[in-house]
Amino acid sequence: MTSTPMKVWVIAGAHPKASRNPMLGIFEWDQAKALQQAGVDVTYLAVDLRSIRRHRKLGYTYGEQDGVKWHSIALPVGAVPPRLLCAIGRLALRVLYRKAFRRAEKPDVLHAHFGVVGSYATGLATQLHTPLVITEHNSALNGVVTDHRIVAESARAYAKAQAVLAVSQPLADSIHRLTGHTAIVVHDMVDTDLFKQCVLRPHEGFRITTVSNLIPLKNTIALLQAIQTLHADYPDILLDIVGEGPLRKELEEFALNQELADVVTFHGRLSREETCKVYEQSDCMALVSRTETFGVVYIEAMAAGLPVIATRCGGPEDFVNESNGVLVDVGDMAQLKSAILWIRANKSQYESGRLRQYVNTHFSPQVIAARLKEVYKGLIPFNRCFNV
Question: Phi/psi at 8 (nearest 5 deg)?
Answer without folding.
Answer: -125, 130
